[in-house]
Amino acid sequence: MILVILDFFPLFLQVTCNSFTISNGEMQDVGVGLYPSMSLLNHSCDPNCVIVFEGYQLLLHSVREIQIGEELTISYVESLVPTRERQKQLMRQYCFECDCPLCQNPEKDAEKLAGDEHAWKEVKDAVNEVRYPKSKEEWKHVLARCQNLLRSHKGHLPDTNIYQLKMLDCAMDACINLESWEEALYYGSRTLEPYRLYYPGFHPLRAVQLMRVGKLQYSQGMVPQALETLKQAYNIMKVTHGTDHSLMKVLMEIKEECEAMMRMQ
């Protein structure tokens, strides 16, 4: 039995190092897959390419101009976390140190952990404890926890603190699942500036967040604001997802509805 486990251990390590987390249209994790050719791409915390999924199909898109002979790179880890945590994760899972420009110049780390340390550590623990709920009652519990923490730490944590940002995202998700659209918009709107700060340029996470907030604005009759937000999402998503992606088609439909309503006013 021990010999069998040892035989499979190298294979397990290969899967751990070379697998890709499959995400749905809203960039939520739904599974893990192996894509051998994409596993050849090296890492940068500030990559020139991003990966998105269309079902189980992996799509690679460049997010800036790439020079002849320049290496294509993707990020193996979430760039939102501070430099030290990214380095620890890369060493633990992939056994290397990153020396990309973002790691050499961690100027945003102070802002990512701004505010009262005791407060953000409490919020961090709470966020890490959240598991994707399966019922409305569980979502109500998650929302109540988020509301209590956001209320108790008001004035102690800026929205640019990454754990406060994750808590706002969690509260937004809970409100959407509970169909509390106005409150979902309140939390979602607070995330837009931090997303712009931490995901500059073309990033799929920012595109999806803009689209979600734009849809909420539209549901609340805020048509001019929704159109502006959806235009921002469109300008990013046409690069990160491409015009043929199913999510892009949904975005274009909502954007066209807003434009039609604006013409009627």
From TrEMBL:
Entry's Gene Ontology molecular function annotations: histone H3K4 trimethyltransferase activity
Major enzyme class: transferase
Catalytic activity: L-lysyl(4)-[histone H3] + 3 S-adenosyl-L-methionine = N(6),N(6),N(6)-trimethyl-L-lysyl(4)-[histone H3] + 3 S-adenosyl-L-homocysteine + 3 H(+)
Listed Gene3D superfamilies: 1.25.40.970, SET domain (2.170.270.10), Tetratricopeptide repeat domain (1.25.40.10)
TM stretches of this protein: none
Biological processes, Gene Ontology terms: methylation
Domain named SET: residues: 1-77
InterPro entries: H3K4_H4K5_MeTrfase, SET_dom, SET_dom_sf, TPR-like_helical_dom_sf
EC number from the UniProt entry: 2.1.1.354
Cellular component GO terms, alphabetical: nucleus
Signal sequence range: 1-17
Keywords attached to this entry: Methyltransferase, S-adenosyl-L-methionine, Signal, Transferase
Stated name of the protein: [histone H3]-lysine(4) N-trimethyltransferase
Species this protein is from: Junco hyemalis (Dark-eyed junco)
